[in-house]
Design goal:
The chain is mostly helical. The model has no long low-confidence stretch (mean pLDDT 88).
């Protein structure tokens, strides 16, 4: 049965090994972990160091993701505003096209009237010229 002092010594040894491993590469730490049996101080120190590094990477990734989500939210709001402006401009253009179409129809009718009046005046002039002889 282990005593409190033995557990404390093992924990202190693991902490010292973790500090030593702090400057080593992840590949070297993994190799040392695989070289030692599970539960040994070296294995526990390597596992602890790898868990710390993975936690740090995870925290960095979460912070980066949060920043990216903020940027995406801002971009989405900006695009939403631009879409509203585009819809408004498209609606105004559609109204102008409808107005132009109605004006063109009125112009077409006016042209038919002018052509009709011109033809009537030509007939009138022809009858007037032939009526004098």
């Amino acid at each position: 049965m282990s005593t409190f002092t033995e557990d404390t010594r093992a924990i202190n040894k693991i902490q010292a090994l973790v500090k030593l491993l702090r400057t080593r590469s992840s590949e070297e730490i993994r190799q040392r972990m695989y070289d030692n049996p599970p539960g040994s101080p070296w294995w526990s120190a390597c596992k602890t160091e790898l868990d710390i590094r993975n936690g740090e990477r995870m925290a960095t990734a979460i912070a980066d993701t949060s920043h990216i989500l903020d940027k995406m939210r801002n971009s989405t709001e900006h695009l939403d505003g631009l879409t509203d402006k585009l819809v408004q401009a498209t609606t105004e253009m559609a109204d102008l096209v409808r107005g132009t179409k109605q004006s063109a129809r009125r112009m077409e009718i006016a042209t038919y009237v002018i052509v009709g009046v011109t033809i009537l005046q030509l007939f009138y002039a022809v009858f007037h010229v032939f009526g004098i002889r």
